[in-house]
Every structure is written in C-alpha cells, then in structure tokens.
Amino acid sequence: MTKLKQLIKQLFANQVTQEDYEPFLTQLNINNIIKVRYVTVAFIIMEIIMLALHLNIKHDTLFVFPDLLYGIMYVLMLSFMFVMRFAFEKWSHQDPLPLTKIRAFGVVFSLFILLWSATISLLDLTDGGEAMVYVVGLIGVGTVPFYKPLTSLVMYVTAHLYYLLVFIFFITPTGHAFANIVNPSLFVILSWSISVIRYHHQEKDFVDQKIIQSQSQEMKKVIEESAVVNAKLTRLSQTDALTGCYNFYMFQEKIKEAWWECLISQEPLSLLMIDIDNFKTLNDRYGHQAGDICLQCVGGVLNSASEHPGCSVARYGGDEFAIILKKTTQKEAIRIVERIRKDVEKLEVPECPFPFPSFKITISIGINTIIPTEADTIEHFIRETDIALYQAKALRNKYITA
User: Fold this and answer.
1) What is the CATH number of domain 248-401?
2) Among 103, 109, 101, which residue's Cα sits nearest to residue 83?
3) Is the pTM of this model over 0.90?
4) For residue 141, which phi and psi values (nearest 5 degrees)?
C-alpha cells in the first residue's frame, strides 16, 4: 500500500521548483498554441471533406437519424475548429500572452475532441461499427498536447463517463458490447499514461535546461572574471608599476613592431630617449620616495604624448624613458618634444602633486628619426639615439637630434 501511495504521489508530483513553475507552464502553453494552430487546420480540412461526402452520399437521409446527428456533429466540429483557430491565432500575437485563457481554452479544446469522438463512436455502434474514432481521439489527446496529470485525468474520466453512460443506457449496439466497453477503457488508461509520461519528460527537459543555463551562466561568469584577471596580469606584465608606462620588455617588442612596419611602408620612425636632469641629486637630497614621486610626475606628462597616433611610451630604466613615434617625421617629433619639455618644466607649479617645488624638474632628450632599410639595424638606431641623449644631458633641459 505504501508503494502504491508513493507511485500515485510520483505521478502527480511536480519535478519543477515553485520558482520555475510559472515559466514551465508558460513554455507548455506556447507549445500547445503551436500544436493547436496546426491541429485546427487539419480538422477544418478533414471536416470539410467529411461534410461534403456526407451531403453527397446521404442526401436522401440527411434529416433521418442517425445521419442527421452525423451532419450536426460535422458542422459542430467545423464551427468549433474555426473558433479555436481564430482565438489561438489572436492570442499568439498578444504580448504578454493571455496564459489563463490559453490554458482554459486548451482544456476545452481537448475535452471537446474527446466528447465529439466519443459521440461519433456511439453513433457508429448503433449501426454495427466500432469505437475506433473514440480510440483515435483518446490517443490524439494523449500524444499531442501537454497537460498536468490531474488535468488530463479529469478530461479522460469526464469523457469516458459520458461514453459509458450513453453506451449503457441509450445505445443498443449490434456488435460486441463487452469489447466496446473494455477496449476503450484500456485505451483511456494507456492514453492517460502516455500523457503523464510526456508531461514528466517535459518537466525533466525543462529542469535539465535550467541546470544547463545556470551552469552556462556560471561558466560565463568564470570566463569573464578570468578574462579580467588575465587582462590585469597582462597589463601588469607589460607596464611599469610606478609610472604606468610600458616596461623595458614591451619597449623591445614595440620598437621591433614599429621598425618592421616602417620598413615595409618606408615611412619615418622617430625615437625619443629621455632622462631626468639631476635625478641623483634629487634622490640624495630628498630620498628615494621623492625620486619615485618625480618619476610618476614625469611619467604622467610623457603618457600624455601617447595621444599621438602610433606612439608608445616606455620606462627604459632608472630615470630614463623612451617614446616610439611611428610614421613621424623629425619635425613632428621636435614639436612633440618641445611640448613635453615645457609640460615637465611646469611640474614645479603648486597644482602639481610633486611636493618639492624648490627642486626644478627638467628633462634632456635625444631625438633620432630614420626611414628603415635592410642595411639598418634597431640596435644601431637605439645607440645613436642614446648618444644624442647624452649630448643633450650635458646641456640640461635641451634636446639634441642624432
């Protein structure tokens, strides 16, 4: 008895959580709308054909029982299908969907098919036929739409009680009465079982889909977080933590990239080598913290030059910086240098975060511009720029071109 109770409980239990129950029912109703739209068309075509055949074959007995009732049933089914087609077509285009109406009319639709098919079979039984139409209706309702087990059970019980009561009290069948009671009853059980199994399969598919979506969202979140971390690590591996400029490794990569690009396009490549004047004196007088602040201030000014197209700013080492200017002539490079040099001179004004205004910050710059050829090398290009820098350092707050 306990196992039977558990089985019954499982048949009617919901596998979908309360939170997801409404979305699940919404999905079921959308599926039912699609199916009803196709089924109504099939029934309309079928009933038009049946009505035409009935009028042609039974024209002499149209108003005689049971042909009169057959005709009424065909017209009733045809009219009902037109109404259902119109209603579901209208509701399918509404936003939001009128789910309460769709659920109610879906039950009415299936129950009508069961009652109609039962009535046709009862008429067939009066003339020596079988309950074939009713059986087909039972199977159709069990295999096409989706209903909750309790809802489908109520529909099947209602239709079958109608069939049995009319059969027992009003029909005098010419065939096997017992078979026409037992066989449809077995098909009721079979069809309801199919309906329950399909419903629970839909529940399982929905739950599995939600799990997959949840896992996908979690995976997406992990991937996004990993991408952020990787981007941060990449940025940290490429930039100097103190100044925010590229580090020496990235300088080497960027100068190679710029060199080959200008070599292929035969356009000028300019390199600026920059050194902070009297930086050692600053460190000795105010300490390394002051030196770090100075490097940050100068790095900020140099980074502003990166707004120039094809510009890469790097901390070359110690208090030396380098600026790579792709597709930049010497004249353009000198204009950029003058702006940078003047901006650095302004660092001693009160608005600057540098806290030692008594120390005048200036920079010396070496400039080198080349249109690379196969005979030239990057190493020689950098060395010549470095020589120009040291010549400028001897003058302080100046630039020298190589």
Assistant:
1) 3.30.70.270
2) 109
3) no
4) -65, -30
Contact 306, 312 (CB under 8 A): yes
**Within 13 Å of residue 265, how many CA atoms lie on the same side as its CB?**
13
Q: Which helix (H) or strand (E) is 325 found in, with range?
A: strand 320-326
Domain ranges of the chain: 2-217, 248-401
Q: Give the pairing of strands 363-370 and 269-276.
A: antiparallel
Long-range (24+ apart) CB contacts under 8 A made by 166-174 are: 166/118, 166/119, 166/122, 167/122, 167/125, 171/122, 171/125, 171/126, 172/126, 173/125, 173/126, 174/125, 174/126, 174/127, 174/128
Give the mean pLDDT of 103-115.
Answer: 92
3-class SS of residue 326: strand
CA gap 55, 60 in Å, rounded: 9
Q: Over the stretch 356-378, which tens digit does the pLDDT of each residue have?
A: 656 788 999 999 999 999 999 99
Single-letter code of the amino acid located at 124? D
Q: How many CA atoms lie within 13 A of 309 on its CB side?
A: 4
pLDDT digits (tens, 9 = 90+) for 144-170: 888 888 899 999 999 999 999 999 887
CA distance 300 to 244: 8
